[in-house]
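Assess this today:

___
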Amino acid sequence: MHRYVIKRILMMIPVLIGVSFLVFLILAVSPGDPTRMILGQQASEEAIIAMREELGLNNNLFVRYFDYMADVLQGDFGVSWKTKLEVLPQVLGYFPNTLILSLAGILVAMLIGVPIGILSAKKQYTWIDNVTTVLGLIGVAMPNFWFGLLLVMLFSVTLGWLPSSGMGEGAALLPSLILPALTLGTGCAASIMRMTRSSMLESMRQDYIDTARSKGLKEGYITRIHMFKNALIPIVTVIGLQFGMLLGGAALTETIFSWPGLGRFMIESIKAKDMPMVLGSAMFLALTYSVVNLLVDILYAYVDPRIKAQYHSMGGKKRDRKIFAKAK
């Protein structure tokens, strides 16, 4: 198990390098001069030339990238061209707000998607199954920004129950979190519902379910212990993937609700062509997504003991090969 975790951690290195290079390349070739955005359109040519030299924009693309990565390896993610502040403290300052929103969104998605998926599987081919399937398709196809605007119009403008923007503090945090969490969670709930239904249907057709019913066990107990527990692996997978996507893809929702998260701050940095800020944010989000996937893989071992036994057997086979090689 430990070797598998170490191997996955080492695999994150090429992922981060690839993400950083792609983002760096896109920002470098995109139209617009960052020096004019920093100094303003009325700046003189002498000031622009001096600024380009200061930022190293006159160097070759690959030279600039390798210089940046050399600083990153030393723990220096650079200084924001827009705010003149260090990148890493700003990223770490905005990320907790995105994490709070993502956790609330995935909680809403699980509370909606998992029970409806189980109910849909238990009531297969009935009107309940048909209605939940249609709702799931609508949830997948519905744009988040459109649904978020509808929620604002209903609960903020018309009813006046909830705030339409901003992040409250203390007791005001929960009311300001409800609408963004619903906006994020409903789209993810549709995917979780469909996977839960599919996985439950596969589990329901197994022989051990008929055996459990023949023993006289209650249907609720069979559903919870025998069906749902054996259907958890695909459900945990899709929940982990959706949570990783929320961490990196909540930018639109954060913009709609003026939520001070990393995604919204990253969009503002892209508009200003603030390359150090965008690169630092993208690398941090890629690292977070990789860590979430790693945690999901580790969680498999606790959800299904067979997977944990497989990890141990892999380690045992390697030890047996070493012992056999020494004996030869």
